[in-house]
Amino acid sequence: MSMFRGKFLDKVRRLVNSDKLVMPEGWTKAKCISLLNQLGRAPWNVKLLERYAHARGVTLYLARYLKGGPIGNSRIVSYSNGEVTFRYLDRKNPANPQTKEMTLPVAQFLERWSQHIPPAKMHTVRTYGLYATGNAKRLEQARLQLGVPIMPEAGLSQPEQSDLPVKEETEKKRCPICIGYLVVEPLEFEEPVRPWNIYRAKRRSRCPRAPLNIEAASIA
To answer: Nearest Cα to 77, choosing from 86, 65, 88?
Structure first.
């Protein structure tokens, strides 16, 4: 890492001295060289990877990582007699974590699962560095210096949005098994399931005509 840091800073320093580097407005050579000297004493953590051929794989990975839920379907082993068996990673020994199985009643399993649901309107995804919200001008400047065209934000025009099919709210609350309407019931716990006071109870949807095992499978 020290070799990469030294070669990178040396290249930038040469560009500054030869007036080939476009510096931010108000910056001088002395200020830029001083910043490079400070960066040379700071620890670096660099991970270089080959560029992906397409962005679809990255998008799918981030989607599963950020919005995939607290437990994957592959970790659900079985459901029987009102109990759910699932796999988990025991980290009591950090040097040798082991995969084990745990069986819990459905209510207790749902209680643990609900603890991982973020509150409404909570900011769960944040940007960093040049992609941070306050660095929009710096990001645009970096793209201009690198010769990267600034693409407009992806979005549908007003006519395209109006042409999209709009489903009724009731159609989104039908059981996929019997096509009947789902009944929304409050699910009360003996203790708060999360540290936020406004989330002392959760709501779940079930179909009154669907068997219990189907309900548990759909929740899992």
So the answer is: 86
